[in-house]
Amino acid sequence: MSLILLAADAADTVASVNPADLSIAHLVSQADPVVKAVLVILVIFSVWCWTVMFEKFGAMIKANAAAARLEDTLESGTLEDMINYSDKHQVSTIIAAGNAEWREGSGEHEHEALHEVRDRIERAMRLELSNETRRLNKRLPFLATVGSSAPFIGLFGTVWGIMNTFTGIAAAHDTSLATVAPGIAEALIATGIGLAAAIPSIMAYNSLATNLSRYTGRLNTAVGIYAGRISKRFAPAARA
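Above: the chain sequence. Below: its structure as tokens.
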């Protein structure tokens, strides 16, 4: 029992002589310049990722709502409704491309078969669909890049910080916990921030990529249905 009390008194004495402030703010302020640079990079990546995430999730919500309106029009509307289809979302440009090809291309292909009319209209609509997909996919790969690289960037900061800690221990000839703990804690902050940046990024990327794939599939189906319906009707130029 006396040995335990002596050990506790010795620990209190060391703590009073070498008090260690292990708050995150203090550790970051006392960090090595290289570790600080790593932390700044990771914070910038994290802020940028959250900005992209909010933007893309908002864009996907609007896109799915527009796809639902288009599907409702296809299901319950008439062909005239589709020919005059209008929507504030960019999805309307896909229908507009098909309608333009239907109206303007018929005069140049008066003797084409029905499946050729459909293929021509569908091709024009799918070209516009690819533009819509590229628009939604813009900046999405950045999330995957941060998700895969941020842990290693943080690990680099951790390794650098631990190396500096061991160098300081060797120079001071002091292996007490009060000397080792701040340096180790400072180094581990980089790994923690790296993971904090990577985990939301990779989760958001997987979710957004899945939603984008489903959205593209819905529009591909709508394009096929509409091209099949409108190709059976003579265009104004063909009647003339």
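The CA atoms of residues 66 and 87 lie 8 Å apart.
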